[in-house]
Amino acid sequence: MTFYSYAYLVDQNKTPNFIFIIATIILAIALLFTAYRYYKNRNDNKYRDLLIIFLFAMVLVVGINYNNYEKDLDVNNKTNQTIELMESIAKNKDVSAKKLYSNSSTLAEGMLIKNGKTIYRVSFDDNQNSYTLTKVGLVNKDDVKIQK
């Protein structure tokens, strides 16, 4: 069982997708270059064909990137809910949020929060507006991994 630290969850929200950003920049440069070459040599159809290919590739990459962006926003919102829960627990237990660990990056019924050697099971109401902490024990404590 893996427990994620508060800092790890906060840092997860800041990770951009560099591969798609780099691909978009490269395609934009190629698109501009072929557009320039086509403008200079309008009789040469290979630049027009390349321009169309790069334009379609750019639309495809931007579409995929937008889809990934929407998914990342959803994951970030769910992770932010877990971060808010950890901050609330830290405030109620009068400990630093940096000393808390969660076994889930999203809010889920039955998720575990680790505070030092004490582990709590989190139960939510129907709207996930309130929670109850129940102290629990693990069967196999050697199986616990901490992701900082």
TrEMBL record:
Sorted UniProt keywords: Membrane, Transmembrane, Transmembrane helix
Superkingdom, taxonomy of origin: Bacteria
Transmembrane spans: 18-38, 50-69
InterPro entries noted in UniProt: DUF3290 (IPR021707)
UniProt KW Transmembrane helix keyword: yes
UniProt-recorded name of the protein: DUF3290 domain-containing protein
Organism: Companilactobacillus versmoldensis DSM 14857 = KCTC 3814
